[in-house]
Amino acid sequence: MPSPAPRSPARFLIACTVLTAFVAAQEPATATKKKQPDFFPSLLRFHSGDTLPDFDLLTAEGTATPFAKLRGKTTVVVMLPKVDDSVGMRHLLNGAKTIAERYKPYEVKTVVAALWMDQESFLAAAKAEAGKWPFALFGDPVGPYSGPPDDKARRAHRALTVQGRMFGDGMAPPLPSSFVVDRDGKLAGSFNLRGENVPFDGIANLLLRAGIHLGKADLPAEVAPASAFAKAPPRPVEGAVELVTVGAVAKDFPMVDADGKPVRLADFAGKVVVLDFWATWCGPCKAALPHLQEVAAKYADQDVVVIASCTNDARDSFVEFVREKQKDHPNVHFACDGLERSPDRASRTLYGVSGIPQTFVIGRDGKIASTVDGYMAGEVLLDAALVAAGVKVDAETLKKAEGDRQKRKELKAGRDR
Predict the structure, then answer these.
(1) Where are the domain boundaries for CATH 3.40.30.10 in the chain?
(2) Distance between terminal CA atoms of the chain?
(3) Which among 152, 147, 125 is positioned nearest to 138, based on CA atoms?
(4) According to CATH, what is the number of the domain 255-416?
(5) Which residues are designated catalytic?
(6) CB 46 within 8 A of CB 52
(7) Domain 15-222 of CATH type 1.20.1600.10
(8) What confidence tens digit (pLDDT) does each residue in 176-233 have?
(9) Based on the number of CB atoms within 10 Å of its own CB, is 146 exposed (0-12), middle (13-18) or buried (19 or more)?
(10) Could you tell me the pTM of the whole model?
């Protein structure tokens, strides 16, 4: 899938910096603790009641129309990376269809915006999809960045995109991203659309917040109180930490897997361990998981094991994610730090991690052999990092890794110019 224009390299390479303000803003807005949040009272820096900024959308006819033109009706917005015939996209489109059909009687409008497609591809897709869906289909008039690896040019381009107009130079939510705005253009809140698995209770609560009077059959099982939409005070800013150095002993700490079974580094003594710190809310972390699976499978015969240690996250979110995605990553050992979002979590106190994804290669002697900061699509830097632990890696992969390192240098040079 094509990628949006990246932010500055420092933020892009570490990509999902563990910003406590962001995590706090994404706390579940449910009256009782649930397996998976039904909705959130925020959309990153925007909170329920905030008026969203205006931006242009590309219509299926090829003209630009302002988002503000949708005002006058409560609207459910589903933002996708693209529209195509892949199984994942079809499930998401079917989910949006279900939403549109269910709430149309309440004069709720549903729109789908494909943000990472160039105009030609979007217009071709829109033509192919014409008449198939009960919702309006839009694209981004600007499209993805296709210029030279110059960070300033990328940032200038991003500022013109839908996500740039919405979130400025800050973090944008990973796609798909879904939210509800009321008839005045004010955010009611956001929700997770996972394919055809539609969180009706969450959407219903957001529609009630937006002033829609739902019939008995469409009311949520539990109506969220007004306090669920109150803006939480910001969490205290965590002090700076220093990343543990190569050569240091990798300190063990207790983790548990999705079934509640204990997991420790000591369980893999004598093996080369890839310890990857990640979170379910971190887009680049999740984007890196397929490559972690490739590494785990490719080097298993050299006693390489991969532990994906979930950090700064809720255990319920971890369990739900793993039960859904474990089948796609059969060789990865998923585990979760029991301290969840505590400032005492192991990633921070024992390893000095301030941004994720952050990966450590631990040698057979139990010492840290190398590290990899962040992840960019297609990189094989982790493969190359295994060499420091005595793992044999083919020459072609090492050559590719050198190119990946050069690409990062060029991005940094573009930022510094």
Answers:
(1) 15-222, 255-416
(2) 29
(3) 125
(4) 3.40.30.10
(5) 282, 285
(6) yes
(7) no
(8) 999 999 999 999 999 999 888 899 999 999 999 999 999 999 999 999 999 999 987 8
(9) exposed
(10) 0.65
